[in-house]
Amino acid sequence: MLLSDTEVISRVLSHIDNQTTDLGDRDWQEPVENYSSMARFNAELKLMRHLPVPFCPTAALPENGSYVARVAAGVPIVVVRTMDGTIRAFRNACRHRGMQVVQGSGCAKVLKCGYHGWAYRLDGRLEHIPHDYGFPDFDKDTHGLVPVTAEVKNGLVFVTQEEPLTRAPLLDTPVMMPADYQIFDSRENTSDINWKLNIEATMEGYHIKPTHPETFYPYGYDNLNVVETNGINSRITFPFRRIEKLREVPEAERKIDRMVTYVYNIFPFASVAVLSNHTSITISEPISPTMTRFVNYKMGPARDDDAEALQRAKKDASFVADTGLLEDNAVIRAIQAGLASGANTHFTYGRFEKAIVHLHKNLAEQLQSLNQFG
Ligand code: FES
Ligand SMILES: [Fe+2]
Fold first, then answer.
1. Of 344, 363, 352, the residue nearest 26 (C-alpha)
2. What gap in Å lies between CA 373 and CA 119, rounded to an integer?
């Protein structure tokens, strides 16, 4: 269970008074080879197929017929909103000769393969084969698109490709943003790093002053965080200095909006950062042990007539992307490149890095049970 907003505020104010921060109860040694090993990469990708993993926000499928296609855990997947509004997911491969039936995102009444024109309904059924007298013995009914599990939880579509080891990443996902938030920006970028380095950079505030002295630190604190584990997931609170204004406000009337950044880790591949005026969702798609594609959605207030709120959201997003995130990226790329130094056999995560310890501990456990699973 996560703390309420007012409990978070009180805990932050107490940390400010006492010059303290949340602490974990153990440290963790993570083998450095886990950031470059092919065997580990393959195991993590397999794990990704055996967990409910965020695929996109439900807002990416606004209408009946909306679809989003991309590679997830190395497998081409398409997620669609069917004609009755339910969300379904399929392996994105034609049952004729395997062409991907759709690319990117869009809206369509049927999913039509671009090679020979076989057409599938949004529920996956194979509806039409051009010149079907060429396939006299072919059973259309057993050649629909191959389904995988799609489930919606608190604004996210989760896809589970293979029998899940645990449903905890989905079950432990809390409400993170207003239900009517819409996407105002989506992009993908590829970086020469292991996916874990990027996720880890969002999960501790111990680096705020050294890494972000002129960007985040002037508005925030160094090493002052609330760090909560929430089942298999976690949440880190990064307070802004303006939170001190709330000392004057009676506890029951305190509002957390614009006073903190909440960063949720959805075990283990996704993070959702709830910033002052927008929410940023990042999903990792590991491409190799040392290369990752990051799929990012930025969401904000829905109302079209509220141009000012949208402007604030965009300004917020560009402040983060053009300043602090560049600093984080420089650090994590340097870590990846530095692996070749051979200096470390292990990285050590201390008590301040409680959420990362939680991530690595759960990741090790899940990979262990994946092994037993066969
Ligand atoms: S591969 Fe799709 S119609 Fe032939
Ligand atoms: Fe950072």
1. 352
2. 37
Q: Does 108 score more than 90 pLDDT? A: yes
Ligand closest to 120 (CA) is 1
> Would you state the pLDDT for residue 222?
96
- Going by DSSP bridges, is the β-strand pair 66-72/110-112 parallel, antiparallel, or unpaired? unpaired
Residue of 78, 90, 103, 116 to mutate, ligand 1, most atoms within 8 A of C-beta: 116
The answer, yes or no, to whether the previous bond of 268 is cis (omega within 30 of 0) is yes
Rounded to whole angstroms, the Cα distance separating 77 from 88 reads 11
> Could you tell me the CATH superfamily of domain 53-163?
Rieske [2Fe-2S] iron-sulphur domain (2.102.10.10)
Going by CA atoms, what residue is nearest to atom 4 of ligand 1? 116
Report domain extents, the chain. Answer: 5-50+169-373, 53-163
pTM score, two decimals? 0.96
Mutation to probe ligand 1, out of 91, 94, 135 (largest number of atoms < 8 A from CB): 94
Atom of ligand 1 at shortest range from CA of 98: 1
CA–chain centroid gap for 46, Å, is 17
Mean pLDDT in the chain?
96
Ligand 1 site residues, Cβ closer than 6 angstroms: 94, 96-97, 99, 113, 115-118
Tell me: domain 5-50+169-373, CATH 3.90.380.10, correct?
A: yes
Neighbours of ion ligand 2 (CB under 5 A): 328
pLDDT digits (tens, 9 = 90+) for 175-193: 999 999 999 999 999 999 9
Query: Which H/E stretch holds residue 182?
Result: strand 182-191
Share of the chain above pLDDT 70, in %: 99
Spacing, Cα 359 to ligand 2 middle (Å): 18
Task: Please tell me the number of the ligand nearest to residue 323's CA.
Answer: 2
pLDDT 10s digits, 10-24: 999 999 999 999 999
Closest-lying ligand 1 atom to the alpha carbon of residue 101? 2
